[in-house]
Design brief:
alpha+beta; five-stranded antiparallel sheet; 5 strands; 22% strand; globular; binds adenosine monophosphate; binds zinc ion
Amino acid sequence: MDDCIFCKIARGEIPSNKVYEDDQCVAFYDLNPMAKVHVLIIPKAHIANVLDISTENSAVISHIFEVIAKIAKDLGLEDGFRVVSNCNEYAGQSVFHLHFHILGGQKLSLTMC
Ligand code: AMP
Ligand code: ZN
């Protein structure tokens, strides 16, 4: 995906403030934080959103959640945090490369929308 901004971050072609990286995924601080701690974690391989997760590509999803647990501990989020993935128009997805928002560092509102 030549013009996908998160593919470019995954390839190191545009800068990001990384908190974690391995061969399958990368995590970096969101440019427009919605909480005191706001990190995004993405698979390096392009997947558009949750609707495109399948048997063929889902191994990276369990890996990402293992990494989320590590990042949450490393960033001191054990009191609580939220993991969110916006999927398609109604959820306000703005970057069409699968990503999970890790939100924490404060008490979070319980509103759903
Ligand atoms: P979503 O609206 O769920 O698709 O989330 C996309 C997120 O990506 C937003 O929270 C943006 O602030 C964030 N974002 C977009 N471009 C960048 C970037 N270059 N570096 C870090 N975060 C970004
Ligand atoms: Zn991409």
